[in-house]
Amino acid sequence: MSTFSDTLSRAVTTAKGASGSGRPARRKLLLHAVLVVCAIGMALPFAWMLFSSFKPLSEIFVQPPKLLPQDWTEQGYRTALGGADFVRGFWNSTYIALTVTAVSLLTSAMAAYAFSRIDFWGRRPLFIVFLATMMVPGQLTIIPLYIIMGWLGWVDTHAAIIVPPALFNAFGVFLLRQYIKGIPVELEEAAQIDGAGRVRRFVTIILPLLRTPLTALGIFTFLGQWNNFFFPLIFLNSSEKFTLPLLVNQFKGQYVSDWPALMAATTLLAAPMLIVFAFAQRQIVEGIALSGSKS
């Protein structure tokens, strides 16, 4: 009797274990199904933009809508790349984004080091005020900023859209400060005993350890400047100084828009961002995780 009871007990335990192990598998399958649906929903607009760039204008608003074009044509890309303005705008966007990114990484790292390592009067209140600027929309500061740029003679120059974001990046300072506070102070103290000054400790110890957050911040900054539309729209007047988002906007007319050319130009505008994201997904995720860490 006891043997039968033991066998029955083991059978019930095995059944419960099999049932319990099946639940995580079903949950994982359901989660993957939801993620696939979400991924398709997010990829569909990009696919529509890409295929519409190869459509003639007559097929853009055909009913019922069709994803793939019936008559493939590259006329949209010919129109978008036909003038020198688009190539010049591509160069303008590239060098502005790279310049802002490089300078912003340096200034943000120095400011973050000061807020985390240098004990000066009013450090914490100043950092709180510094972070509070992240809650102020750029549209509220555009008028005083425009007045300042006018005083400096920087209106209709690239300096107006390079200098402010390059020298003042509250998010970058916050992100790097979070990481620096996690670096042991003993590393700097050991270097200080060996005679290393503040600048040398920053360059030889702190900066090499900031490679991960600097990479993430560089990606965020580059993508933000590459997509920047509002500030170039306000400060730039000459077409030869326009960035790519401003030139893409010119394909939209008041009554008639060249939709294939607009889709082609938008595809070319989005291509660098997609390439950066494809090769830097890990750094982007790490940067988001770092921004949420405790100070």
UniProtKB/TrEMBL annotation:
It is found in: Cell membrane. CDD domains: TM_PBP2. It comes from the Bacteria. Its main location: membrane. GO terms for cellular component: plasma membrane. It is a multi-pass membrane protein. InterPro entries: MetI-like, MetI-like_sf. Keywords: Cell membrane, Membrane, Sugar transport, Transmembrane, Transmembrane helix, Transport. Residues 90-280 form the ABC transmembrane type-1 domain. The keyword Ribonucleoprotein does not apply. The chain crosses the membrane at residues 29-51, 95-115, 127-152, 158-176, 202-223, 259-280. One of its GO terms (biological process) is transmembrane transport. Belongs to the binding-protein-dependent transport system permease family. This is Multiple sugar transport system permease protein. The lineage of its organism: Bacteria, Bacillati, Actinomycetota, Actinomycetes, Kitasatosporales.
